[in-house]
Each structure stands twice: as structure tokens, then as C-alpha cells.
Amino acid sequence: YLDECGVRWIILGTVAHRDPEFVRRACLRWPGQILVGLDARNGKVAVDGWLQQTEVTPIELGLELKDAGVAGFIYTDIQRDGTGAGPNVDSTVALAVATQLPVLGSGGVATEDHIRSLRNHSSKGVHGVVVGKAILSGSMPIASALALNLR
After folding, report:
1. CA quadruple 121, 58, 16, 145: dihedral sign
2. How far apart are CA 49 and CA 59, in angstroms?
3. Model pTM score
4. pLDDT tens track for 5-49
């Protein structure tokens, strides 16, 4: 049904921490179409719109969810999100290497160099980047971001 509607992926967040069995069932129902957003503050996953801090690291939860069958992750360093300070490349790469699943980096991306810093790790599993505020503010034209395709 998802393909019929034109949906390529479903992104799950808080539920992935709270109910991994739900994620497992979703992955069985829609194989290859479930991504999980792993948002972290100080190296620990945050849920409920970043209001609740857990004691679980993104890698720990990522490995559990890999076993559930997720297709990949969107990793956001909350402390960098919206700052323009650049993505947390080390944590993004570490998640990709540990899980051996595709990871999209997010949080702090504001320049073409920030995109390149993630693109340099495409062979390690970093498959994309989320650019938000920089595009909304006009500091990075959409065409520039797309021209730096990670694949």
C-alpha cells in the first residue's frame, strides 16, 4: 500500500525506543521502508520531542533496531541542530560503522563544506544529509545542496 501511495520511507522516532516490537512488526510489513530518527544529546538518545533524555546511546539502540530490520537511521545531534556549527561527523560515522546500515546526518548543517564533511564518509555508510534551517533562511540554495549529492 505504501508504494501505491508514493511513500518511499516511514520515519519512526520515539516509538523506536519505547516499543521496539512495534518497529519489528512495521519492518516485517514494509521491508526496506522503515527508517528511525535517532536524536541524541550528550551521547544519549532523547525522545518525546527531545524533552526526555534516556540512558541509551544511539549505537546501542541502533544495534537493537538493526536486528528489528530497519533500513537505516537519521542521526541528529540535538545540540548542533539549527546552530549552523556543522554536523557531528564523528557520531554520525560511528553509528553507520557500528550498525552497518545507511545513516543520514542531521543537525548543524549550514554550508557546502558541512555537506562535504559527511560526503567524505559515504564509503563508511553515511548516505545522506538533512539540511533544514540553512535552506529556509536562504543561506544555502537548494540547488547547491542537491549538487553535493552524497551518492
Report:
1. negative
2. 19
3. 0.91
4. 788 899 999 999 999 999 999 999 999 999 999 999 999 999 999
